[in-house]
């Protein structure tokens, strides 16, 4: 999640696999990367709230790793959200890119 790989448009765009690097769900335009999706994106407000309940604290860039190493339950909670997020992004990526078509730019 933290290395910027995967299905983030910010990453896909760099390799020509997305027409732009921006989150399709947020205004104003913001590059879709791991930090945006996991910590800020409106798409995952529900998942994030659920995670914060389980972590008994805010989910922030600096605190996520601390949470993850503080207990097995919290590690699992963070991991569960990460998996849900990545699944969702993969679904969106598949629906966005028709097989073998040009982007048109
Ligand atoms: Zn977003």
Write a structural description.
This protein has one domain. It contains 5 helices and no strands. The longest helix is centred in the last third of the chain and has 25 residues, at 72-96. The chain has helices at 9-14, 34-40, 45-55, 61-70, 72-96. The two termini are 29 Å apart. The mean pLDDT is 86. The protein is 56% helix and 0% strand. The protein has 105 residues and is mostly helical. Bound molecules: zinc ion (ZN). The site of zinc ion (ZN) has 7 residues, from loops.
Relevant terms:
binds zinc ion, mainly alpha, 105 residues
Which helices and strands, and how do they pair?
Blueprint lengths: L8 H6 L19 H7 L4 H11 L5 H10 L1 H25 L9
Helix pairs in contact: 3-5, 4-5
This protein binds zinc ion (ZN).
Zinc ion (ZN) binds next to loops.
**Major beta-sheet overview:** none
Q: In whole angstroms, how far apart are the ends?
A: 29 Å
Strand content: under 5%
Order of helices and strands: HHHHH
Quick summary of this structure?
The protein has about 100 residues and is mainly α. It contains five helices and no strands.
């Amino acid at each position: 999640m933290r290395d910027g790989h995967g299905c983030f448009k910010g990453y896909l765009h760099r390799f020509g696999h997305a027409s732009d690097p921006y989150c399709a769900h947020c205004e104003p335009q913001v590059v879709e990367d791991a930090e945006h999706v996991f910590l800020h994106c409106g798409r995952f407000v529900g998942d994030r709230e659920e995670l914060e309940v389980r972590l008994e604290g805010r989910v922030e860039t600096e605190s996520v790793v601390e949470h993850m190493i503080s207990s097995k339950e919290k590690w699992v909670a963070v991991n569960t959200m990460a998996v849900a997020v990545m699944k969702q992004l993969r679904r969106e990526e598949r629906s966005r890119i028709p097989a073998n078509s040009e982007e048109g730019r």
